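Input (structure):
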C-alpha cells in the first residue's frame, strides 16, 4: 500500500556554492561514500533525501548522513538506511522507490513510500 509520495528539486550550482561556504554542511547531508560523488550526484542524493522526508518516511528527521542514496550498475538509485533509524521509522516492511532526473542545473527526485503489513 502506498502511504507516501515526496518530490524535491535542487539547484546543482546553488548546492555547490552552499557546500563551499558552510564547512559542516557536506558532513551533515551526505554519507562518507556520497561525499566522493560529483556535485551533480551529490545534488541528486540531497533531493532524494528531502523527497523521502516529504513522503513521510522519517518525519522530522534531519540526520541525512544516516541515509545513503546508492547507484546500481545501471545507474538506478536505491536507498540504504541506518538499521536503527529504519527500526524507529517503521514497524513493518517498507519499500522505498526513488527516481532522480537531471535537466541543466536542476535535479528532481521523486520517492514513493510503500508499507507492507505482516
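Output (sequence):
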Amino acid at each position: 500500500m502506498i502511504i507516501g509520495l515526496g518530490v524535491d528539486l535542487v539547484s546543482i550550482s546553488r548546492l555547490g556554492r552552499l557546500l563551499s561556504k558552510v564547512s559542516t554542511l557536506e558532513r551533515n547531508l551526505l554519507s562518507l561514500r556520497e561525499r566522493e560523488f560529483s556535485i551533480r550526484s551529490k545534488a541528486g542524493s540531497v533531493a532524494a533525501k528531502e523527497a523521502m522526508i516529504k513522503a513521510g518516511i522519517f518525519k522530522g528527521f534531519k540526520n541525512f548522513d544516516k541515509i545513503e542514496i546508492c547507484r546500481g550498475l545501471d545507474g538506478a538509485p536505491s536507498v540504504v538506511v541506518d538499521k536503527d533509524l529504519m527500526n524507529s521509522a517503521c514497524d513493518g516492511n517498507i519499500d522505498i522507490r526513488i527516481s532522480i532526473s537531471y535537466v541543466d542545473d536542476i535535479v528532481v527526485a521523486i520517492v514513493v513510500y510503500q508499507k507492507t503489513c505482516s
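Notes: The domain at 2-116 is CATH 3.90.470.20 (Ribosomal Protein L22; Chain A). The beta strands are 2-11, 67-71, 77-81, 93-103, 106-116.
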